[in-house]
Design a protein that fits this description.
This protein has 93 residues and is α+β, with helices and mostly antiparallel strands. The protein has a domain of 57 residues. Strands 1-2 form a two-stranded parallel sheet. Helix 2 packs parallel to helix 3. It is globular. The protein starts with a helix and ends in a 23-residue tail after the last strand.
């Protein structure tokens, strides 16, 4: 799809040469475990928090950098810097 090409082009600007787009979370977990990747960028609007947390753990276990963009009102749990605070009562950046 066009948006996948645009994302790959944008990621190349960061120095990434090879990207693999996967739509199924099971396929992503298999790719993480198989190795051959340096990072996982997860873009999702509907993944449940347990699945995302499991991917984060898998990436940590296999030495991959993990970043998630999750459209979820409660997604601040992804990291302490995203947690609500005095300046950001709703959380986020």
């Amino acid at each position: 799809p066009e948006h996948t090409r645009a994302q790959a082009d944008a990621l190349r600007l960061t120095g990434l040469r090879t990207t693999t787009a996967l739509k199924d979370l099971d396929a992503v977990r298999t790719a993480v475990a198989a190795g051959g990747h340096d990072a996982l960028l997860l873009l999702t609007a509907d993944a449940d928090t347990r699945s995302v947390a499991r991917l984060d753990e898998d990436c940590h276990k296999h030495g991959l950098w993990f970043a998630a963009a999750v459209r979820d009102a409660h997604a601040w749990w992804l990291g302490p810097t995203l947690a609500p605070g005095a300046e950001r009562t709703a959380g986020g950046w």
